[in-house]
């Protein structure tokens, strides 16, 4: 799905390598957008950094490695 969005012209896509638990996805998305929109704007050049910080926040919440490692940024 993420690669398909890239082929359609989307500059920056966050995806997963395999299925994800709903609660982990919810925590990741919340942390991602908190970081991604922290200055009041959305800049796709900051998506990879925001994802990195969001995944790191999952580590603080003691989420297992295989649940954190599945998130990828393309673009």
TrEMBL record:
The record's listing under Pfam families reads:
CHAT
Q: Where is the CHAT domain?
A: 1-64
Q: What InterPro entries does this protein's entry cite?
A: CHAT_dom
**Designated name of the protein:** CHAT domain-containing protein
């Amino acid at each position: 799905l993420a690669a398909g969005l890239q082929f359609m012209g989307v500059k920056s896509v966050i995806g997963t390598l395999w299925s994800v638990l709903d609660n982990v996805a919810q925590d990741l998305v919340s942390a991602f957008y908190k970081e991604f929109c922290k200055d009041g704007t959305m800049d796709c050049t900051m998506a990879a950094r925001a994802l990195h910080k969001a995944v790191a926040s999952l580590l603080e919440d003691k989420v297992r490695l295989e649940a954190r490692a599945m998130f990828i940024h393309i673009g």
